[in-house]
Specification:
heterodimer, A: 400 residues, alpha+beta, Rossmann fold, Phosphatase 2c, domain 1, 2 domains, 5-stranded antiparallel sheet, 10 helices, 18 strands, elongated, B: mainly alpha, Four Helix Bundle (Hemerythrin (Met), subunit A), 77% helix
Amino acid sequence: MGTIELVSRWSAAMEKPLKVLIIEDSEIDALMLLGHLRHGGYDPQYRRVDTAIDLADALNQQSWDIVFSDHNMPGFSSTVALEMVRAVNADIPFLIVSGSIGEEVAVAAMKAGAQDYLMKGSLARLVAAVDRELMDAEVRRARRAAERDLLAREEEFRIAREVQQQLFPATSPATAGYDIAGASCPADETGGDYFDFIAGPRGEIFVVVGDVTGHGLGPALLMTDVRAYLRALVLSNRSLEDIMGQARHLLVEDLGTDRFISLIFAKLIISSGGFSYINAGHPAGYLIAPDGSVRNELSALAPAVGVDAETQRLVSAEVSLGKGDLVLLLTDGVLEATSPSGEEFGMARAVDIVSRERCRPSAEIIGSLFDAVRRFSGSGKIQDDITAVVVKCLNDTPTC
Amino acid sequence: METNAIDQKAISTLQELGGGSFVVQMIDLFLAYAPKVIAEARVGLAKGDLEPVIRMGHSLRSSGRNLGATYIVDLAQSVETAGRAGKVDLLPSLLDQMEQAFSCAKDCLEARKIEMGILKPADGDN
């Protein structure tokens, strides 16, 4: 008896196409099964096989929507067929259609991954079984695809987190008269937060806090660019505007059209307490006086890098840090942390906490701020990276 | 036996599933296939090879059911059972009966085709 047929000869008008693999030694039985499918509104394109060799070939040649298998065939069985099908496709519906299959065999087949079994003399429920199994298979496929995507995303974020963590300075600058600290806490979906302390050629300290838009590996890699450019450019002894302008020029090429970087780039002159800064589209920083009041707001005076390209002039501003003064720089992950009721953490709350904690060491101030953000978020999980830098000009004698 | 050789309900089911052309296709396939496997079983039995005998019993059991050839189905079951059990002495008689049953079924199926207006009497020897 012939073993292979590939036939599609029925009208497909208004019928659902179905690629059917039939493992069956009887052409008549196969035809009967196809009759039921056509009557049920399907337009089957089918291949009939009845040996392991032909089944392997059929599985190699193309994908199938559904497999029907007789149980007993000369030299072949549904048990072996099921193993072969499952080896190449875990999701494809496999239905046993047999003239005689014992209950034990049927149960074993279901345990091995067959979806259903039908008796050849009673195919009335065939179409309903096919409808159901195709739908279930689609659900299984979608779930597997979602699981694969999730794993891929988790892996990307894991790598992004590793990249990001490598960028942060391992230690804070040990500078007499100042207590400088920074910290960043990544969210599950790592964003593009970045901070850095760079020792300048004249003993000054450059402080950077930035945020690349987006999440994952792309922003993390862009941060490596920002870090490298700024670290190299500060050695050039040029002005804050020149360094930032050159960095912006280099970064714009890397950013593409859908990303930008908000950044505060500041320089602290240790001897004078001069704190000059460029705020390019970043949330304002704050200078908090020894009495806890806000003395200055270090607002954005230029758009973020990547917005309006290089048409906007970079303008720096300067404040002077006296003893007991404190500068707070944040990223929007702190400000936009959301409570379960939908309220945002906001700058006022952040400034209030830092103001209250101002007498503690800078690292502890940041720790208190992050704890408050986590508590505010409710679940303990933050939605976005949170990053903060605190620069304190120390008092000779603590006043609080 | 001839009047009961084919269960009309099975033919009606085929008609319902795929119309007259489907009935013809199934009948023609059966009429071409059954004598072939019966002949193979004969040859096998003569050589003492039961495999084609069992295969004939197995396949006619289900394909005969599709066409309502109930007597063929019963005989096919007996052939398959005897073949698997190695009861060779039962098989010659069962094959004789199968040939007779097929002859009756063939007449009956061709008559059905004529009754249904699918096949003209003059074409009956196809």
